[in-house]
């Protein structure tokens, strides 16, 4: 076996059980990974330098193929209603099969940190079959400095072998694709999928398990900070604007997807960004667009002209979930530390395709916990296969249910405590539809959303006159400079007021039906924060 690259010293792959490998490439830099990925036929170099790869069958996460090993240590800690169990025996069989598959192969290793807070960061080793996967995870996690690398000792290991096909009968999984997390053995096994996002979300899952007992809140959110250290966090599911709205040229970007809130403040879990780029606009999102036009960026499932190598960001022939992965310093105003003070504002983003929710609402701490546990957004036709003409509600608790190993009440109670302790203002921002539901109304103007957020972040919105929403009972501003007052009251934007009232009652019932599973786990004040079936609000 030959070793090359920046070797970690005493900690080789033998301790993880690898044997008889052809070669191991340690912590290679981006140009070398480019060379190897192209030579191995893993993708192409597009115009202006980004690397473009196709992920084949899996163009997104395979949630139904993710498992957590259920043993005596994890049994009482895991929210099993949300997580699929795997026996230790099945995991061991899977592990042995993957080690056999790896023999004689060329592998790539990155030793990285998950977390920019030195007190709480996770040393993680990622072993990949593909060179471009090694480049991807190098971007998405945090590279150690020279001193840290010399003494690097991985706490968790992720093994990512896309070419391996699991056997459901032997390995206790559902298909040939598997993501198996073993908290006791501190090992994650990924096989049968080329979608690189599985690696980064595995690190998020691990941190979501490890941090709450330390009273550190793991969050599926973006974060930025203003000139006066007025940091803000933005919760939101895919398609709600989490990446777009946090990449504000007037504020410093801390990170776009995953953060912790510790005794020291907010810290990024990652060292890069993973942005959706379908129909990305140079005019509307210049900072993110620019990353698709430079060397180092990894593009997933973006259409590339075979002759000119020009990108077509509007073409979703492979998937609507086209992605760009890049180091965070590709964004001009990004934080160099990945850390920020305790947030002054907590923003929860939703894309309400039913056209009911106001563009911005102020939440009490109890309402914030209610909407955090609800994790509402809506999907519409064109965003995922199989969706019909009507919007489909999505309730992903904590704005990240697939990555939450513990019960949601643990995260919700911790967030509520932190909000109260640091006196943060909480806002629900609807980036979805106004003037009617999807198909009748239109998308909320991003100019209006940015103006409302600016007023929230600079503190002026908290002083504005507010009305109480008759259904959701949160406070909604009556007037905001630079924003059409009509848009602030969704009912006023609908031509058919009776239709709005019916739609509002329908959405309220969806919220209440979804929240039943949390009612036994929350305090009375949170239960009282639920929306109610109000009559028409004249």
Give a summary of the structure in a few sentences.
The chain has 538 residues and is an alpha/beta fold.
What does this structure look like?
With 538 residues, the protein is an alpha/beta fold. β19 and β20 form a beta hairpin. The chain starts with a strand and ends in an 11-residue tail after the last helix. The model is unreliable at 381-388 (pLDDT under 50).
According to DSSP, the number of beta strands is 31
Q: What's the story with the biggest beta sheet?
A: 9 strands, mixed
The radius of gyration is 23 Å
Number of helices: 14
Q: How large a portion of the residues is in β-strands, by DSSP E? A: 15-25%
Question: What is the strand and helix layout of this fold?
Answer:
Blueprint: E1 2-5, E2 23-26, H1 30-39, E3 44-45, E4 51-53, E5 66-69, E6 84-86, H2 88-102, E7 106-114, E8 122-128, H3 131-140, H4 146-150, E9 156-161, H5 168-171, E10 178-182, E11 187-191, H6 197-210, E12 217-225, E13 231-235, H7 242-246, E14 252-255, E15 258-262, E16 265-268, E17 272-276, H8 286-291, E18 298-300, E19 303-304, E20 311-312, E21 323-327, E22 339-340, E23 345-350, E24 360-363, H9 365-374, E25 376-379, E26 392-395, H10 408-422, E27 425-430, E28 433-434, E29 442-443, H11 446-457, E30 466-468, E31 475-477, H12 490-493, H13 497-515, H14 524-527
Parallel strand pairs: 1-2, 2-7, 4-18, 5-6, 5-10, 8-9, 9-11, 13-23, 23-27
Antiparallel strand pairs: 3-4, 7-8, 10-11, 12-13, 12-14, 12-15, 15-16, 16-22, 17-21, 18-21, 19-20, 24-27, 25-26, 28-29, 30-31
Helix pairs in contact: 1-3, 9-10
């Amino acid at each position: 076996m030959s070793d090359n690259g920046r070797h970690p010293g005493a900690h080789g792959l033998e301790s993880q059980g690898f044997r008889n490998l052809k070669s191991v490439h340690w912590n290679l830099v981006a140009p070398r990974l480019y060379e190897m990925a192209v030579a191995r036929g893993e993708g192409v170099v597009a115009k202006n330098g980004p690397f473009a790869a196709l992920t084949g069958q899996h163009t997104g996460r395979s949630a139904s193929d993710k498992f957590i090993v259920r043993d005596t240590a994890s049994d009482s800690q895991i929210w099993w209603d949300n997580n699929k169990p795997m026996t230790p025996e099945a995991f061991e069989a899977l592990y042995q099969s993957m080690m056999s598959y790896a023999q004689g192969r060329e592998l790539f290793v990155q030793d990285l940190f998950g977390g920019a807070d030195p007190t709480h960061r996770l040393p993680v080793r990622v072993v990949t079959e593909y060179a471009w996967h090694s480049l991807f995870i190098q971007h998405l996690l945090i590279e150690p400095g020279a001193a840290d690398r010399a003494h690097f000792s991985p706490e968790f290991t992720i093994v990512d072998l896309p070419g391996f096909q699991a056997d459901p009968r032997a390995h206790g999984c559902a298909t040939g694709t598997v993501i198996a997390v073993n908290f006791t053995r501190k090992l994650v096994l990924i096989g049968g999928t080329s979608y690189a996002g599985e690696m980064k979300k595995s690190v998020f899952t691990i941190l979501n398990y490890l941090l709450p007992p330390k009273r550190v809140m793991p969050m599926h959110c973006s974060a930025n900070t203003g000139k006066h250290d007025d940091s803000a966090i933005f919760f939101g599911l895919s398609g709600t604007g989490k990446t777009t709205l946090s990449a504000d040229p007037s504020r410093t970007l801390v990170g776009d997807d995953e953060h912790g809130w510790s005794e020291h403040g907010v810290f990024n879990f990652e060292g890069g960004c993973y942005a959706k780029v379908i129909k990305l606009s140079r005019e509307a999102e210049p900072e993110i667009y620019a990353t698709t036009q430079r060397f180092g960026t990894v593009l997933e499932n973006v259409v590339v002209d075979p002759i000119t190598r020009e990108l077509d960001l509007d073409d979703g022939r492979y998937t609507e979930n086209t992605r760009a992965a890049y180091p965070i310093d590709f964004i001009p105003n990004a934080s160099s530390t990945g850390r920020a003070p305790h947030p002054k504002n907590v923003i929860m983003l939703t894309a309400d395709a039913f056209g009911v929710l106001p563009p911005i609402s102020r939440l009490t701490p109890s309402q914030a916990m209610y909407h955090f546990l609800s994790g509402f957004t809506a999907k519409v036709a064109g965003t995922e296969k199989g969706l019909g003409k009507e919007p489909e509600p999505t309730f992903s608790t904590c704005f990240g249910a697939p990555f939450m190993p513990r019960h949601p009440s643990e995260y919700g109670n911790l967030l509520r405590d932190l909000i109260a302790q640091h006196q943060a203002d909480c806002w629900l921002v609807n980036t979805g539809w106004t003037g009617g539901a999807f198909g009748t109304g239109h998308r909320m103007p991003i100019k209006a959303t940015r103006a409302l957020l600016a007023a929230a972040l600079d503190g002026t919105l908290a002083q504005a006159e507010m009305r109480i929403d008759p259904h959701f009972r949160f406070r909604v501003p009556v007037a905001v400079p630079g924003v059409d007052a009509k848009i602030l009251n969704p009912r006023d934007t609908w031509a058919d007021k009776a239709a709005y009232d019916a739609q509002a009652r329908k959405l309220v019932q969806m919220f209440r039906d979804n929240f039943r599973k949390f009612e036994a786990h929350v305090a009375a004040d949170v239960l009282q924060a639920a929306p109610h079936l109000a009559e028409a609000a004249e």
